[in-house]
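Complex record, two chains
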Amino acid sequence: MRTIMTKNSRWMNAGFQIAALVLALLFTTLILLAAGAPPLEAYQNIITGAFGSLRKFSDVLVSWIPLLLVSAGLLVTFATGLWNIGVEGQITLGAIATTWVLRELQDTSLSPSLILFLAIVAGMLGGALWAALAGVLKTFGGVNEIFGGLGLNFVATALTVYLIFGPWKRPGVASMSGTEPFDEALHLYLFPELRLSPWALVIAIVAIVIVYFLLQGTYFGLRLKAVGKNFRAAYRLGIPTWQYMMSSFLICGALAGIAGALQVTAVYYRLIPSISSGYGYLGLMVAMLVNYQAIWAAPIALFFAALNIGSIQLPIVLKLDSSLSGVLQGMLVLFVLIMEGIRQRISQRI
Amino acid sequence: MDSTTLIIGLASIFAAAAPVVFAVMGETLSERAGVINLSMNGTILLSAMGSFAVAVRTESLFLGFLTGMLIGAIVALIVAFSSITLKQSQVAVGFVLALVCRDLSYFLGNPVMGLAGPRLPGWSIPGLEAIPVIGTLFFRHDVMTYLSFLIIGLSWVWIFRTRPGLMLQGIGERPAAAFVRGANVNLMRYVYTVLGGAIIGLAGPTYSLSVKAGWKGTISGLDGIGWIALAITIFGGWNPLRAAFGAYLFSFLQWLGLVLQPSLPNIPSQVLQVAPFPLMILTLLLVNIGNAEWVERTLASLPEPTRRFFARAFRTMRASPPAALGVPFERD
């Protein structure tokens, strides 16, 4: 009897999720029609823009790497019941720390691979440090992590702009195009003819696998989830709640910091003002969409990355703004939340 | 800087703060009822774009502002429906809406980007404008700035001096008790969230049809305002007067950044524009730290005069959110 029930509800779940996808597509189609654009052509452009050639698909993977890293980190903070909106700033600080180490060491006799390794570790620490600030504000200052994090995001952006226009400005004239690009020896290795770095890909995949096992198979993960599910009960049971919350912030910040480090060492080769590229906010949506289950993070992040890369075609071919991908991604999450609410209401009535 | 320039500069702070005041008052009403409307950043952008597009097409400022309110109300309705009726997380729904509405405004705003549009004319109040200093400061603005003054007073009187306002406090603090006393908690939450949303929706057109007239897409400089307004709402401790003070303080700091720019040539202008944020975090910390348990413990161990001084300082700054903020109400 019980198995039939769960099987039924699993089918019902899937049905509601498909309905959410259909509604999100329907809404986006209406928006396209409202903008006077041909919807089918727009979708076709997105698909060929993401999967039309090996090069395009490798670009999707380039965008998948930071998104996956950030989503992996956010799965940990969500498990602990924390809304780490400060993740954008944590990516940025990772990028800043990496740029700093590269700048300091580029003229030394150290081998380039060692410099790159140290720079990525620095990025990790930079992200963790920024997350620790949000964590301290939350656990000791009583400042909600959403507001502390948001404020720190703005500070991180200001710091980036200050560095680009101030101490790290390009010889000659400082500009929004960023700092002086690093020497080719300090670029992470890329596949020939592509923009994709195998090292970055491996790091991202290892990160999500670690997070999966951390949350599913360890005592530490279980306790993190206990803190997230019922803070008071966990506290009464003797779990040192603030230490678990801080660890969770640190893990997420470290992963976001690596994402920022890889943007510097494998994508832009310099620090640019919008180095986080919105991957933090996108990662929050991925983590919400997978309903905090690590196993789904990789495919959903790939889907989101494909939408992002595919929509780059829109302004060129159809004179539409590329923010359409954001509309589709957001509506998908919104409808999934709404359908989940409707499903719960219906199953309560039964 | 001579005194006339200074007074005109200070007067511009009130005009520049008007949209922030609308956003903060709308959010305060909504949160007083127990619903966090986290979508504010997107709502402001979408209502700025939508009202500008409508005003350009119809050449009617009135329809423009109406569109802004309508957009704010609809977004708030989605937040209310998902959280009150469907019991989904307010933070999740609001956050997603903040992103979707932002992207929608950029996507749909593409055709009207950079167009010349109507702008709200200034309207000095006859008689009052002639008063020295005060006249320039308060009575030489446009209608929306006057409305922003008015709404601060109205919100305060409504919340603290009327019967429905008392009920509003009740449904945010102790919904069960309010329910027993005959309040339809969920209906009232719907009403205040949608009303608050409509007021937030005034912020957009106040930018795009007055303070920063026009729509320039991603470089409109409006992205981020909604998040600041959220922080100011907390800083304001859900009290309209204190929240208005926060909005004006923020506006003042931004103005100060612009004024100081020429004398600090080594600091890029983008840095001074964000100067209020670290300050905002600091104030949030000061507002909240009195609630932290370790502070109370440390205070208790201090010698008496020091303890009393710090305890009083923290109590003055402290603000606690409505007790039922973000908590769905179930009658049982």
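Note: Residues 2-34 of chain A form the longest helix (33 residues).
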